[in-house]
Structure formats: structure tokens, C-alpha cells
Specification:
It contains 13 helices and 9 strands. By secondary structure, the protein is α/β, with parallel strands linked by helices. Strands 1, 2, 3, 4, 5, 6, 7, 8 and 9 form a 9-stranded mixed sheet that branches. The chain starts with 27 loop residues before the first strand and ends with a helix. The N terminus is likely disordered.
């Protein structure tokens, strides 16, 4: 089985490495917003500190009040390497934490990282290379989904479907070129300062909203490189997935209303499609004489995700073991369970997104 962790997390930190930088490279700051990430944070920081990039000057962790010892781990690492710095984020949300880091950081380049992702050993180098060559304002790689349980495997396969990805270019690991948004991001810090950083009103979708602001500066502001490799672990259960996409829907509505001049069909599509279906159901309830075939519409609507899940599961069956699964070989889920969870995810993601979008719209109007 191909495993994705390429770094050696046990590599000893060089306490004097801050003095061994090469000023021929743009200075770089890493930003990690966290909350209760004690399981992942030490390995993540140590892996970044072991980079071959010669001008990593600081790693900021903006912690939203963790209660699991995350802050203690970061403080311990800061005594080993002064490049590691802890910032307290009283607002707790990611956008606020990222803005605090923008304010405190001094690097030419601002690289955002997520504690729930794994990064290739050359992640930093490839990000900087793409930023310099593309002339873009923000670069990144595709969001490659991986899994350690059956439900995560279902989500990972769901994102390989048009129904699950919405045709987003940053979900395609083979895409190389300009796009409208990107996973995480590597920016010129000065640009982030100039546009005022992240919108703290958004509890989710702050990255897509920021990229909309960048696109007003240049239609080639966002660049995706297939050479930049990062792997993302999705939610572990249905409840977490529903809440995640509920928040995505709320954030997408706020982004759409803030940037009305920019066409954002992909972000509005779940709301538009489900609004039509629910409107038809309401009309059928009020005026049954119209004879709308709602039973057939509902049955078809429930069948399509599971039929699409069957197609995707068959098409990517080999990829499940070689590219997606990161658990033990003994616990590899069956194709039947992956098919079911993939279909459930394809049902859940647009419905939860619709609920969040509708809630935020009604909240704004009321």
C-alpha cells in the first residue's frame, strides 16, 4: 500500500536553524489555526521544521483556547526552536486566528496550513516555486482526500463525482492552472495586508471569500499546481459532515451577497436545485389538481446519489487501496460499505449546504 507520509517526524530539531537561513529565498511564515489538535500538532510542526526550504523564519499557531494540551505542546516546541510561536485567538474562529498571524508575521510569503492534513516533504518548496513562476497572488495544490475509516472513504469517493465536487478544479489532483479558489493557500503576505486579510464575519468559507477579493485584483490571481501535494482527512461521521456543510452553506451565502458582481453558480447550485424541488412539493400540496409527479421526483432524487455512488465506487475501486486508504490493511472497508457511505455523502452534502444557505438567507432578511 502506498502511504502518503513522506517526512520523518522523529528528526531532531536544530535549535540553531533560525540562524542558518539563506536570504536568496523569500522569507516564509507558516500559519496554523488550531483548536484541540494535540493528536496532530507536534508531528505537523516537526515535519515543517525539517523542511529543506532555506528561509522558513517562523511557524505561528493561533490557538482558539484548546483544552487538550495543544498549547503546552506548542510552547514546548517553541523552547526547542524559537521559530515556533503561539498566539492566543480569543475569537476562536479560523479567520480571526489567521488575521492575528498576518499581523504578527514578518515573512514575505504567508503559507496557511491545516492540522488535519498531511503534506509532502517538498510541500513548501513546491508552493514557493509555483508562487514565483505563476505570478499569481495565491497558489496551492489539489485537496486530495484520504481515509482511515469507512465513512471517510465514502466521502473521499464522493468528491470524485461531479455531484460531490461541483466541478471544482481544486478537487482534481491532475489539474494544473488558474482557478477561482484553492485548498489552503500560499500567498504574498503584502497582498493579504493590502486586502485586509480574512473576513471574520465568516465562520466558514473564509478562504473562498478571500480568493474572491484576490480575483478582483487579477483574473489570474489563483493558481493550482499538481506538483503541490497535500492530503486531507474528511469528517469521521455523518453528524460532523452535516454540520460542516451546514456551515459551508451559511458561509457561501455571505460570500455570494458580499461579491454580487462575481458569478458563483457552483456555490449556489445546491440551493437553486433543492429550492425548485421543495417549491414543487409545496405547490403539489397546495394545488394537488396540478398533478405534479412528486413521488417520482423524490424517488429519482434519492436514487441518483446511490446510482452515482455505484459508478464512482466501481471506477475508483483500485484507487481505494492505493491512494485513499491510510488505515491498516486488515481494516480496509468493504466495497458495499464504501458504496453506501459514498451515496449517503452525496445526499448529505447538498442538502446540508442548502439548509445552511437557506438559514443564513432567512436570518439576514429577518
Amino acid at each position: 500500500m502506498i502511504k502518503i507520509i513522506e517526512q520523518n517526524s522523529n528528526k531532531k530539531l536544530n535549535q540553531n536553524s533560525i540562524h542558518n537561513i539563506d536570504t536568496n529565498y523569500p522569507s516564509l511564515s507558516i500559519a496554523i489555526p488550531t483548536y484541540n489538535e494535540s493528536v496532530h500538532i507536534e508531528k505537523l510542526i516537526r515535519d515543517f521544521l525539517s523542511t529543506k526550504y532555506q528561509n522558513l523564519i517562523e511557524i505561528f499557531v493561533a490557538d482558539g483556547g484548546s483544552t487538550d494540551g495543544t498549547q503546552d505542546i506548542v510552547q514546548k516546541l517553541s523552547t526547542e526552536d524559537p521559530r515556533v510561536k503561539l498566539i492566543h485567538n480569543p475569537e476562536k474562529i479560523q479567520s480571526a486566528g489567521l488575521n492575528l498571524i498576518i499581523k504578527e508575521s514578518t515573512g514575505d510569503i504567508f503559507l496557511r496550513a491545516d492540522a488535519h492534513s498531511d503534506y509532502a516533504s517538498d510541500y513548501i518548496e513546491k508552493c514557493v516555486e509555483a508562487l514565483l513562476k505563476s505570478k499569481a497572488l495565491n497558489v496551492g495544490g489539489a485537496q486530495r482526500f484520504v481515509a482511515k475509516n469507512a465513512f471517510q472513504s465514502g466521502i473521499a469517493l464522493a468528491t470524485k463525482s461531479l455531484l460531490g465536487s461541483g466541478g471544482a478544479k481544486y478537487r482534481n489532483p491532475n489539474y494544473h492552472g488558474y482557478a477561482d479558489t484553492v485548498y489552503l493557500g500560499c500567498f504574498w503576505r503584502k497582498v493579504l495586508v493590502d486586502i485586509g486579510g480574512f473576513d471574520t464575519i465568516l465562520i466558514n468559507n473564509e478562504d473562498a471569500e478571500l480568493n474572491q477579493k484576490l480575483l478582483t485584483k487579477s483574473h489570474q490571481a489563483i493558481y493550482i499546481s499538481s506538483d503541490i501535494k497535500v492530503w486531507y482527512y474528511p469528517r469521521k461521521n455523518w453528524k460532523s459532515l452535516f454540520i460542516q456543510y451546514l456551515k459551508y452553506g451559511r458561509g457561501r451565502y455571505l460570500t455570494a451577497t458580499k461579491h454580487r458582481q462575481q458569478l458563483q453558480i457552483r456555490g449556489k447550485l445546491p440551493f437553486l436545485v433543492l429550492s425548485v424541488i421543495f417549491s414543487m412539493m409545496l405547490i403539489d400540496l397546495i394545488v394537488p389538481q396540478m398533478g405534479l409527479p412528486m413521488e417520482k421526483v423524490i424517488i429519482i432524487g434519492l436514487l441518483i446519489p446511490f446510482l452515482e455512488s455505484f459508478r464512482v465506487t466501481c471506477k475508483f475501486a483500485d484507487n481505494l487501496n492505493t491512494e485513499i486508504w491510510q488505515g491498516s490493511e486488515d481494516s480496509l472497508p468493504s466495497y458495499l460499505s464504501v458504496w453506501f457511505f459514498c451515496g449517503l455523502s452525496l445526499l448529505t452534502m447538498p442538502f446540508a449546504h442548502f439548509c445552511g444557505y437557506t438559514y443564513q438567507m432567512l436570518k439576514r432578511k429577518l
